[in-house]
């Protein structure tokens, strides 16, 4: 089967490709600034063209390429005790999320994603006071639920951010969050690969086709981060639940 036959398995017209590419670019502008959130931005648009069980693995592939660019510059600031505390819980949550994603019916997944985005939006708009000091015990629910949301909906980073920003200085919190997102991406990618999701060549080819849109969005997001002061980044990403959303030092 040649490339054209593989791509014909995605029934997208020219306008569809433009909308999908724009959604990916916009999602990775947010990722370039905040370090997470691709599914929250791209998911509601992509769900018009493909099932959620394809969207999340697709975004995981693209996140895998993007995440390590955030990790490398800040790796020296990573708080290893907090990282090691969250990682096992995150791995358990990711495993549960992948099981649910691959076994629940598409209409149930769609309903759950809609509820997730709605609750997150209400939380972002109405809850202005963030926790100032959480105990280490909160790593268990935050890591587990964050991992499950990451695998199921493609976005659990905001829970890691709430926990880390209540326990660490800003630079250490950003660096540790970046490391955790990178590890989460590897875990989810591995679980999807073991489950056989990436045995579907059309999905891999679609991810390859969307890499330029991802790279463009990431470049724009990082340029915006460089132009804005930390205070400016905080104002423009006030809906994200941590003080300075940029994960870059």
Describe the secondary structure blueprint for this structure.
Elements: H1 3-7, H2 14-34, H3 38-46, H4 52-71, H5 80-103, H6 106-126, H7 139-153, H8 157-165, H9 170-194, H10 201-227, H11 230-236
Number of H- or I-type helical stretches: 11
Label the structural class.
Answer: mainly alpha
Query: How far apart are the termini?
Result: 46 Å
The H/E string reads: HHHHHHHHHHH
Structural notes for this entry:
The structure is a single chain. By secondary structure, the protein is an all-alpha fold. The protein has one domain (3-236). 73% of the residues lie in helices and 0% in strands. The chain is built from eleven helices and no strands. It has helices at residues 3-7, 14-34, 38-46, 52-71, 80-103, 106-126, 139-153, 157-165, 170-194, 201-227, 230-236.
Primary descriptors:
mainly alpha; single chain; 0% strand; 11 helices; disordered C terminus; globular; 249 residues
In short:
By secondary structure, this protein is mostly helical. The chain is built from eleven helices and no strands. Helix content is 73%, strand content 0%.
């Amino acid at each position: 089967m040649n490339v054209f036959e593989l791509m014909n398995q995605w029934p997208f017209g020219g306008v569809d490709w433009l909308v999908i590419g724009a959604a990916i670019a916009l999602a990775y502008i947010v990722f370039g600034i905040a370090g997470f959130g691709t599914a929250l931005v791209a998911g509601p648009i992509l769900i018009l063209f493909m099932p959620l069980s394809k969207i999340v693995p697709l975004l995981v592939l693209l996140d895998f390429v993007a995440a390590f660019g955030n990790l490398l510059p800040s790796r020296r600031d990573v708080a290893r005790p907090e990282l090691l505390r969250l990682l096992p819980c995150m791995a358990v949550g990711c495993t549960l999320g992948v099981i649910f994603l691959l076994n629940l019916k598409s209409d149930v997944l769609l309903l759950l994603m809609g509820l997730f985005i709605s609750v997150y939006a209400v939380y972002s708009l109405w809850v202005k006071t963030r926790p100032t000091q959480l105990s280490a015990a909160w790593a268990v629910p935050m890591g587990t639920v964050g991992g499950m949301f990451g695998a199921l909906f493609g976005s659990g980073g905001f829970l890691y951010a709430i926990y880390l920003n209540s326990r660490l200085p800003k630079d250490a919190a950003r660096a540790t969050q970046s490391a955790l997102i990178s590890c989460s991406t590897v875990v989810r990618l591995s679980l999807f690969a073991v489950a056989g999701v990436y045995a579907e060549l059309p999905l891999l080819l679609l991810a390859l086709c969307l890499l330029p849109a991802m790279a463009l969005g990431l470049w724009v997001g990082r340029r915006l981060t460089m132009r804005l002061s930390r205070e400016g980044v905080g104002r423009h990403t006030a809906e994200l639940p941590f003080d300075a959303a940029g994960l870059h030092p």
